[in-house]
Write a structure and sequence with these properties.
Jelly Rolls; 2 domains; mainly beta; six-stranded antiparallel barrel
């Protein structure tokens, strides 16, 4: 009996936009970012569910640094532009979670692309334009579809970049994701519809 993996003849990269530089984690005395800013950005630090007593978070880059004071759980937004961060130092904050996001000077998210999957095996096929109604007056038309293994975390609005085995599409945005299950209720594969970018 053949495996579903036998039909995955194409390869794609999947990117996701995020403003998160440090995903939610328990504060430690010294920490480092999960990812570096791709351009100059201000920082937004959120402390949640922690015991805070004169909390201080110091962020140190190559040429700039900034201190954030916390008297309780909450959010603080910086004014210094960072292009890289070498160290995050924390004191007076125990337990809970710390989140650090990239924001612009108006406080909005400063998104950047992160690679979710590189060279992901998929089955790619073109389909007739299909309309999926979302909200009144809003529609999305997908020209292409992919399928991949059931354990792959693919989400709407992820960016797909063709690597090999795909004709007619170089970049697309995932507009609809559906997990397919077999008769026993176990996951079989993930299908996603793709709009051309």
């Amino acid at each position: 009996m053949s495996s579903i993996n036998d039909i995955f003849t194409a390869r794609v990269d999947i990117l996701r936009q995020t403003s998160a530089l440090l995903d939610g984690t328990t504060p430690a005395v010294t920490m480092s970012f999960d990812r570096q800013p791709q351009r100059s950005t201000r920082l937004q630090i959120k402390i949640e569910g922690a015991s805070v007593a004169s909390g201080l978070v110091g962020v140190f880059g190559l040429t700039v640094s900034e201190l954030f004071n916390f008297s309780t759980n909450g959010v603080a937004v910086g004014v210094v532009g960072f292009t890289s961060v070498s160290l995050v130092a924390v004191s007076g904050i125990v337990g809970g979670s710390i989140f650090i996001d990239a924001v612009n000077k108006y406080g909005g998210p400063n998104n950047q692309d992160i690679t979710v999957f590189s060279d992901l095996p998929v089955r790619f096929y073109a389909q007739d334009g299909r309309i999926r109604m979302r909200k009144a007056g809003q529609e999305k038309i997908a020209k292409y579809k992919i399928m991949t293994r059931e354990d792959r975390d693919i989400r709407e609005n992820d960016i797909l970049i063709a690597v090999s085995g795909i004709t007619g599409l170089t970049r697309g945005i995932i507009s609809f994701v559906h997990k397919i299950v077999d008769f026993s209720g176990s996951g079989h594969h993930v299908q996603a519809e793709i709009q051309d970018l």
